[in-house]
Structure formats: C-alpha cells, structure tokens
Amino acid sequence: MDAKQFEKISRALSDPHRIEILQAFKNRKDCLQCTEVHDFIDLAQPSISHHLKQLVDADLLLPEKEGRNLKYRLNEPVLDNYIHFIQGFKTNL
Fold this sequence. Notes:
The longest helix is centred in the first third of the chain and has 13 residues, at 16-28. A hairpin with a 2-residue loop joins β2 (61-66) and β3 (69-74). It is built from 5 helices and 3 strands. Strands 1-3-2 form a 3-stranded antiparallel β-sheet. By secondary structure, the protein is α+β, with helices and mostly antiparallel strands.
C-alpha cells in the first residue's frame, strides 16, 4: 500500500457515519444494498449514497450491479493491507 492510498482510506474512515456503515457490513457478513443500509443508519438516502461513494472511492467497498441497483460488499483484502500498513508504524522493543 502506498501513502496516497493510505491517506484516501484514512480520510474515508474519518467520518463516524462511514464507520457505522462499515460496522453494518461487518455484522451482516454479506452484500448490502443502499436501501438496506438505511435500516441500520438513520440518515437520508442521499447522505447514505454519498458515504457509500466515499467508501467505494477508497476501495473499502466493492459495488456489484444487480439489475438497476447496486449491492456493496467489504473489500477485505484492502482492509487487511491498511491494517498491516498501520502496524508497520509500531516499534518492536
């Protein structure tokens, strides 16, 4: 992971609503549609769409087209790389 991707993910994770959205995905362990996210998060539909776009742009969520709708799932390899990158800041004493 390069510094630019790390920064993009960090910015996406800096919003508490996006953290809530990621937790909803983690708890569901499956794909979610935008309308299903609304069941977990008390935000207007346009706000949820905005937050989902930010998470997709940071590669934290992967969109999947299903008819006219999009389903999203966690991009676990990117999350793993992000965590590994952060762990590289620790000093081993």
